[in-house]
Design a protein that fits this description.
This protein is globular. Helices cover 44% and strands 14% of the residues. The strands form 6 sheets. The chain has an 8-stranded parallel sheet with strand order 11-10-7-6-5-4-3-12, covered by helices on one side. Strands 18, 19, 20, 21, 22 and 25 form a 6-stranded antiparallel sheet that branches.
Length: 896
């Protein structure tokens, strides 16, 4: 074996976004519902060639937290090769799916290779093995390496599957040596599946099945440098089908020990797991006896015990016995559990036993917060719990503050000073506030400048406060340019302060390609709150910061080079050819529906209770870094308890919002005559005070080269061309549920309650989206009326199982924010309902949604993708703006 264990080499996969698997990464879960052998629904859809519906299965997996999706088309009644190619090609056009890496899964090499030829990014092949001998094994591996993929190697050789520890080691070592020494296959791209077999079958030879996998994993991680280990966890509990309580415990115990041994990837059904620490001690003992083969009668004992727990469910019992614990333990528990009822009593007791009140913060409270930090870092606490911990901490500090101010010599120490700001023109700050809270919990001093912060203020404050790190946040695409400008200005002024980049539209790609080259000091993209603590710690830790910064620069330079190479390899067509390949609709047979109530309409104060049934809760949990689809997330093995508690708190606040009228919802919308002109423009006739004014919506057209028979779409394709002589229709709207949100958030912040401050903003966002969904339904059924008989439940509405679309400027089909101005001009939005646009065209209040209404049955959502400079110049000419302005506003959509 030529590799040395001391090297640092990580498995790097990608869809549209990178997935780098490091020792610090949490367990990587593979979604298997796009496997015809793992989902009867998916099998049926593929057999019936309902590929669009099959895409929804993939989308649900990604939304549910799958970090890799396994695609398998092996079925006797399916043309596996054709189905694999078609499905992967469709995934490429869906950014919300294709952002994660793909696992191409098949027992047939021809299907795997067909998938490798069309898959996007760096995928995983599942799988190859030595069962057909070394020559075929090496041939396949060589091709996999040439395609740039990682590979799962099954513990299987010419003799059969490895079913003992010795056989697992023998096959893994032989496979590794062949791949690394003969082919120079990157060892970090090798993933071993060491075979998870059932235990407790009653057969003596199966007793060590789980233990041999765990010990085999430990051997691989120690002796075969840089490799990963994977497996299908549900196999281990096969003997206990029908007893979910025992199966969930078995999965949890097996994973607990396997992950400790080094297993870092696997297929796990989140609904079939129990939290390890919550398994009753008697059940835990019986299950661990079986999994770890600790006694000869373990199977018989578990079988007997299983009858006593079948179908049991946990019950919550109030327990205040912790109030009898020693003082430090009480304070730590209050912080960990987010209990603020007794914190002032406890810190007062602590204050009386220290020399200076500041020592309570630096001693008792920070001891407790260190426990919070450790639990959060290890995945045993979740974001909402940490925010509640921060609330307890802030209230404790607020209580102590008067005593500290009396002590003139008191100086508080911190791990570092961090400036946080949402950049100029942007109003969104939920993510920034969450990161600030998490860092504050780890004893960093936070200077939060709020939203819409101009660069000169960020730079002046950074100098004045001598901050250690600057964190920039943004949600809308123009914010990306603000971040680039700030990096350039920091470079010009010779800053050395590291720069953190975060927010919904930011990405590692944009950070590496656009921001990092402008600033010689460290720039790092932080995609979630849990990662922020580690990144900041590495940036500020004196003994490792220089090495970490150098590694960052190198990593981003390599990422940038690879990204630009991929961009250059993508094929585009001219705007002229893209227009020739537009979506063709037979307008003389197409259905065009005259609106029942054309013109502009206003809703000044919608009763918010109306929106409750339209709320899509899944993004709410995602905003708190809890991933999974609602309502299944409430039963999730890992985050279910926390999700249920968070949901309960949200429902209580929602009822307060309704009963006390804490927020106000308004809307303005309109339906107008319209036609497409000049291929990509939509001419809108707006009647006002006896006159008709013409407005133009400019749309953008896909320019990537399409497969035969697939059009290059623009939104204008969904409106009848003027040359047909037909009159078509379009709508536009703006809704807001944000009036009152900022005042409430500030009130909670003044009470040291970040949890409810973030909660009110997150709920306002959900209500705004619910309002948009509700209003679209009203338009379809009443105001436009083309779907007057529609009867859909909330789940069907969320899945958009209706005719028509409501795309929004700034989103994939129409990334140009400039078109918001036209909506504002047509509807007189600010005058009508008071929603304004910032200079970067963000909406204020932030909990607002705007967009278009298309009613054509063939209209559908799509991603514009990248466009070329010929279209940018054409857009500038059509819109009557300078090319420089067009390039600025369309920058994020322009191919390099």
């Amino acid at each position: 074996m030529s590799e040395t264990p001391g090297e640092i080499r990580y498995l790097k996969l990608s869809g549209l976004e990178p997935l780098v698997i490091t020792p610090e990464s949490n367990f990587i879960n593979v979604g298997e519902r796009t496997n015809v052998a793992g989902s009867r629904k998916f099998l049926r859809l593929i057999k019936e060639e309902q590929f669009e519906e099959a895409l929804a299965v993939a989308r649900h997996q990604v939304e549910g937290g799958a970090q890799i999706i396994d695609v398998n088309m092996d079925d006797g009644l399916i043309d596996g090769k054709k189905a694999m190619v078609k499905f992967l090609n469709l995934i490429v056009a869906e950014p919300d799916i294709s952002r994660v890496p793909i696992m191409i899964d098949s027992s047939k090499w021809e299907i795997i290779e067909a998938g490798l030829q069309v898959v996007q990014g760096k995928c995983v092949v599942n799988s190859i093995s030595l069962k057909e001998g070394e020559e075929e094994f090496l041939r396949q591996a060589k091709l996999i390496r040439r395609y740039g993929a990682a590979v799962i190697v099954m513990a299987f050789d010419e003799t059969g599957q490895a079913d003992t520890l010795e056989r697992r080691i023998e096959i893994a070592e032989r496979s590794y040596n062949l791949l690394v020494d003969k082919l120079r296959f990157p060892p970090e791209d090798i993933i071993f599946d060491l075979n998870i077999f059932p235990v407790a079958t009653g057969m003596e030879e199966h007793r060590r099945n789980a233990l041999d996998f765990i010990e085999g994993t430990r051997w691989v991680k120690k002796n075969l440098p840089h490799c990963s280990v994977s497996g299908g966890v549900s196999n281990v509990s096969f003997s206990f089908r029908g007893n979910d309580v025992v199966r969930e415990a078995m999965h949890s115990v097996f994973l607990y020990h396997a992950i400790q041994a080094g297993m870092n990837i696997g297929i796990v059904n989140p609904a079939m797991l129990e939290v390890y620490d919550d398994i009753p001690k008697d059940l835990l003992e019986h299950v661990e006896d079986v999994i770890l083969d600790r006694r000869g009668d373990a199977t018989e004992r578990l079988l007997d015990f299983a009858e006593t727990v079948k179908g049991e469910r946990k019950q919550k019992v109030a327990d205040l016995s912790w109030r009898e614990l020693p003082l430090q333990d009480r304070i730590t528990r209050a912080l960990v559990k987010g209990i603020d009822a007794f914190i002032e009593t406890d810190v007062e007791e602590a204050r009386k036993v220290v020399n200076k009140p500041i020592e309570v913060i630096e001693g008792h409270l920070m001891t407790g917060m260190n426990v919070v930090g450790d639990l959060f870092g290890s995945g045993k606490m979740f974001l909402p719990q940490v925010v509640k911990s921060a609330r307890v901490m802030k209230r404790a500090v607020a209580y102590l503050l008067p005593f500290i101010e009396e002590d003139k010599d008191a100086i508080s120490s911190s791990n570092g000073k961090i400036l946080m700001a949402t950049v100029k023109g942007d109003v969104h700050d939920i993510g920034k506030n969450i990161v600030s809270v998490v860092l504050g919990c780890n004893n960093y001093e936070i200077i939060d400048l709020g939203v819409m912060v101009p660069p000169e203020k960020i730079i002046a404050t950074a100098k004045e406060e001598a901050v250690d790190i600057i964190g920039l946040s943004g949600l809308i695409t123009p914010s990306l340019d603000e971040m680039v400008f700030l990096a350039k200005e920091m470079q010009r002024q010779d800053f050395k302060v590291p720069l953190l980049i975060g927010g919904a539209t930011t990405s590692k790609a944009h950070t590496a390609v656009k921001i990092d080259p402008q600033y010689s000091s460290a720039v790092v993209h932080v995609n979630d709150a849990s990662r922020a603590v580690t990144v900041v710690g590495d940036l500020l830790q004196k003994d490792k910061q220089e090495g970490y910064k150098a590694d960052l620069k190198k990593e981003y330079a390599e990422f940038r080079e690879n990204f630009l190479d991929r961009q250059q390899k993508k094929e585009f067509v001219s705007l002229e050819d893209a227009r020739k390949n537009k979506l063709r609709i037979d307008w003389y047979t197409a259905e065009i529906f005259l609106p029942n109530e054309p013109g502009i309409h206003e809703i000044k104060d919608l009763p918010l209770e109306v929106l409750e049934s339209y709320i899509d809760w899944t993004p709410f949990f995602r905003s708190w870094d809890l991933y999974g689809r609602f309502p299944r997330i409430l039963e999730d093995d890992v985050v279910g308890t926390q999700a249920t508690e968070l949901y309960s708190d949200a429902r209580k606040m929602l009822q307060r919002i309704f009963s006390e009228k804490l927020l106000k919802a308004k809307a303005v919308f309109g339906l107008f005559e319209a036609n497409t002109v000049n291929d990509d423009d939509i001419e809108v006739s707006v009647a006002s005070k006896g006159t008709v004014e013409t407005k133009i919506f400019r749309t953008l057209r896909q320019q990537s080269r399409k497969a035969e028979g697939r059009p290059n779409i623009a939104l204008a394709d969904f409106i009848a061309p003027k040359t047909t002589g037909l009159t078509d229709y379009i709508g536009c709207f703006c809704v807001s549920a944000g009036f009152g949100t900022q005042e409430l958030a500030e009130k909670y912040e003044s009470e040291h309650d970040d949890y409810n401050s973030i909660m009110i903003k997150a709920l306002a966002d959900r209500l705004a989206e619910a309002f948009a969904e509700y209003l679209h339904e009203q338009v379809r059924k009443k105001y436009w009326g083309y779907a007057s008989e529609e009867k859909l439940n909330n789940e069907e509405l969320i899945k958009e199982n209706y005719r028509g679309i409501r795309p929004a400027p700034g989103y994939p089909a129409c990334p140009d924010h400039l078109e918001k101005k036209t909506i504002w001009e047509i509807l007189k939005v600010e005058e009508a309902i008071g929603v304004s646009l910032t200079e970067s065209l963000a909406m204020w209040p932030a909990a607002s949604v705007s967009g278009y209404y298309f009613g054509q049955p063939e209209s559908r959502y799509f991603g514009l993708g990248k466009i070329k400079s010929d279209q940018v110049k054409d857009f500038a000419q059509r819109k009557g703006i300078s090319e420089a302005k067009a390039f600025k506003w369309l920058q994020s959509s322009i191919a390099e």
